[in-house]
Automatic annotation (TrEMBL):
Belongs to the KdsA family. InterPro entries: Aldolase_TIM, DAHP1/KDSA, KDO8P_synthase. It is an enzyme of class 2 (transferase). Residues 8-263 form the DAHP synthetase I/KDSA domain. It catalyses: D-arabinose 5-phosphate + phosphoenolpyruvate + H2O = 3-deoxy-alpha-D-manno-2-octulosonate-8-phosphate + phosphate. It is found in: Cytoplasm. It holds the Pfam family DAHP_synth_1. This is 3-deoxy-8-phosphooctulonate synthase. One of its GO terms (biological process) is lipopolysaccharide biosynthetic process. Keywords: Cytoplasm, Transferase. The keyword Cytoplasm applies. Its EC number is 2.5.1.55. GO terms for cellular component: cytoplasm.
Length: 272
C-alpha cells in the first residue's frame, strides 16, 4: 500500500517513515485535542506523515472494572473533530463486526487488534468498508502467518493494507521484538512497528498491564534502522494517570526529541 492512499496524509514526499500516534483511549475532547495539537505541530515541523490514533472503546481489558470508554459515538465524534480541526487522518481499533461500519463513518483507518487478527468475519467486515485496514500481528503469531490475514483483505478487493508488529509473547509476562520479522512482513504489506505495545508486560497479578517505557527509544531506533515503513506510539501528557495503558505510553513531552532522533536515523539510511 502506498501511504498516499490514506486521506489527508501530509509530507509523503519527505522520505521519512510515517507515524500513527495518540492516546491509548479517548478520555474526553479536551485531552484528545491537546494531544493532537502537539503531535500535529511536531510532525509538521519534522515533515513526518502523521495519523492520529485513539481508541473509541477498549474491549480487551484485564478486569471488568477497567476503563472501557466514554461512549462509542461520543468518542468517535471526538476523533472526527480532531481530523476536521487539524486536517489529519485518523485510526481507531474495532472489536466486533458491527464496529466496522460504525467506525468507518468517522475515521480513515480501521485497526484490527492483535488478539482478534485471526477472526475472519471481523477482518472481512473491516475490509469491505473500503477503508485502509491495519492488521496488528497477534502476539502468538509468526511474521510469516500474517500473509494469510493480508490475503483476507485482498480477497475483499481492498488493496489498502498495513500490518503492525507489536511484539511476541515471551513467557507469560513479557514481550520480545524479533526484528527479522519486519522485512518478512514487508513482503506482504506496508509494515509498522508498534513501539509502545511491544514493551507491555501483561498478565500482572493486579490485573493491570505493566510496561517498560524506558526502552521506547531503544525499540524505536532499532525499528527505523532496519527499515520499517512506519511506527506506532501511544503518548499522553500524563501517562501515570491515563485511563488505559499508562504503564507503557511515551510522555508527550518526549515525543519531539524521539522523532528528531528517528528522522536523523532515517536520513542516514536513505543515503545508502
Amino acid at each position: 500500500m502506498n501511504i498516499q492512499q490514506i486521506p489527508q496524509i501530509k509530507h509523503t514526499d519527505s522520505g521519512n517513515f510515517f507515524v500513527l500516534a495518540g492516546p491509548c483511549a479517548i478520555e474526553g475532547e479536551d485531552m484528545a485535542m491537546r494531544i493532537a495539537e502537539k503531535l500535529v505541530g511536531i510532525t509538521d515541523k519534522l515533515a513526518i506523515p502523521f495519523v492520529f490514533k485513539g481508541s473509541f472503546k477498549k474491549a480487551n481489558r484485564s478486569r471488568i472494572d477497567s476503563f472501557s470508554g466514554i461512549g462509542d459515538e461520543k468518542a468517535l465524534k471526538i476523533i472526527e473533530k480532531v481530523s476536521k480541526s487539524f486536517g489529519v487522518p485518523t485510526v481507531t481499533d474495532i472489536h466486533t463486526n458491527e464496529d466496522a461500519a460504525m467506525a468507518a463513518a468517522y475515521v480513515d483507518v480501521l485497526q484490527i487488534p492483535a488478539f482478534l487478527v485471526r477472526q475472519t468475519d471481523l477482518v472481512v467486515a473491516a475490509a469491505t468498508t473500503g477503508k485502509v485496514v491495519n492488521l496488528k500481528k497477534g502476539q502468538f503469531m509468526s511474521p510469516e502467518s500474517m500473509k494469510h490475514a493480508v490475503q483476507k483483505v485482498l480477497d475483499c478487493n481492498n488493496q489498502n493494507i498495513m500490518v503492525t508488529d507489536r511484539g511476541t509473547m515471551f513467557g507469560y509476562q513479557d514481550m520480545i521484538v524479533d526484528f527479522r520479522g519486519i522485512p518478512t512482513m514487508q513482503e506482504y504489506a506496508t509494515t509498522v512497528l508498534d513501539v509502545t505495545h511491544s514493551l507491555q508486560q501483561p498478565n500482572q497479578t493486579a490485573g493491570v498491564t505493566g510496561g517498560r517505557p524506558d526502552r521506547i527509544e531503544t525499540i524505536a531506533k532499532a525499528g527505523i534502522a532496519v527499515g520499517v515503513d512506519g511506527i506506532f506510539i501511544e503518548t499522553h501528557f500524563d501517562p501515570a494517570n491515563a485511563k488505559s495503558d499508562g504503564a507503557n505510553m511515551l510522555h508527550l513531552d518526549y515525543f519531539e526529541a524521539l522523532m528528531t532522533k528517528l528522522v536523523a536515523i532515517r536520513q542516514t539510511i536513505n543515503t545508502f
